Structure formats: structure tokens, C-alpha cells
Amino acid sequence: MKERIAIYPGSFDPVTEGHLEIIRRSSKLFDKIIVVVMTNYRKTGLYAFSVEERMELIRKCTGDLSNVSVDSYMGLLADYAKAKNATAIVKGLRAVSDFEDEFQQALVNKKLNEEVETVFLAASSEHMFLSSSMIKQICQLGGDITPFVPGEIKNEIIEKLKKG
Ligand code: ADP
Asked: Is CATH 3.40.50.620 the right assignment for the domain spanning 5-163?
């Protein structure tokens, strides 16, 4: 049977426990997961972490998952999916507010690449409220981000955000 490859795209600026949970759950559903740090040229300069830093943070907390790899891409996700022979795009859904935009993106991606299916995983109740921007805000205001980011990368995130 054909290998089932899924891609999980996002900004991951930085990766959170919410993202990691989606990566873990999807790694059980597919043969391979490629976590793709998407770089949006309109947003360059708005990210707190460089693409390389974001990729490295994801690598550090997914080292125990042998079918997960990390990549970056600038361009159309549908083209990336085609190039990687991906059968699915994984998205995490936190709340109704995520839905409209994600639904629109799923329809567009289906038009651009018929081979790819968007699969939505519902966020868990613990991570429902978590976003990268919330982590940045808490950290910049001196709050404790321990419950929200993977333990092995917490200090790196704090150091970087303090400097920023
Ligand atoms: P954000 O900056 O809002 O955290 P990203 O672009 O990095 O978002 O998110 C990538 C993907 O992960 C999206 O599909 C997003 O809906 C999903 N996601 C983000 N945070 C969570 C969370 N806490 N729980 C589940 N899915 C999430």
C-alpha cells in the first residue's frame, strides 16, 4: 500500500504544547508526518524566531517520534503537498474562530491539488486556548510559560524572547 504522508503546516513561532499534541496524535494516524514551518513573505520581520530557530525547536521536542520530520517552505502549500506526495494536510482546530479561515484554506487547497485531503484534529480542552502569540505575550510580561511549552525548549524560548 502507498505510504500515507501527511504535512502539518504552521508558523510555529514558537512551537507550543498544543502543536506538539497535534504532532503526536497525527503521527499515530499516518506513516510519516512532515512538520512544515511556513514562511510568509508578507510577514517577514514579524516573527520572533527565525525559520532555522523554529525548525530546531520543533526538532528538539519531536526527537522521540521516528516518523516525524521537520522542513520549511515558502510558497503554495498545495504545491508543497504535491512535491512530497502527501495525502493529507493536518490542521488543529481550537475553536469556532479557527474554523472559517481553515475551511476556506481547505477548499482552496482541494481546488489546487485534488490529491490532498485536509484533516482537522480537535484541540484538547487543556490546549484549546493556547497560541504562539499568547506564549510571547506571557513571556514578555514576565509570566511563567512552563505549562504551555515543551520542557526541553522552555529556556531557549525564554532567552530569545527576553532579548527580543
Ligand atoms: P498559532 O500561531 O495561532 O499558534 P500556527 O500557525 O503556528 O498558529 O498553527 C499551526 C496549526 O496548529 C494550525 O492548524 C493551528 O490551528 C494549530 N494549532 C495552533 N495551536 C493549537 C493548539 N493549542 N491546539 C491545537 N491546534 C493548534
From this structure: yes
* Bridge partners of residue 72, in order along the sequence: 37
Q: What is the pLDDT of residues 56-89, one digit of tens each?
A: 999 999 999 999 999 999 999 999 999 999 999 9
- The most distant pair of C-alpha atoms in the chain lies apart, rounded to whole Å, by 51
Share the mean pLDDT of the chain: 94
Which tens digit of pLDDT belongs to each residue from 4-32? 999 999 999 999 999 999 999 999 999 99
User: Which helix (H) or strand (E) element contains residue 78?
Assistant: helix 77-83
Tell me the CA distances in angstroms from 80 to 83, 99, 132, 154, one per residue in order: 5, 23, 24, 30
Q: Say which residue the cell 505549562 belongs to.
A: 147
What is the position in ligand 1's atom list of the atom closest to the CA of 38?
Answer: 6
127 is catalytic: no
Mutate to test the pocket of ligand 1, among 7, 8, 15, 19 (most ligand atoms within 8 A of CB): 19
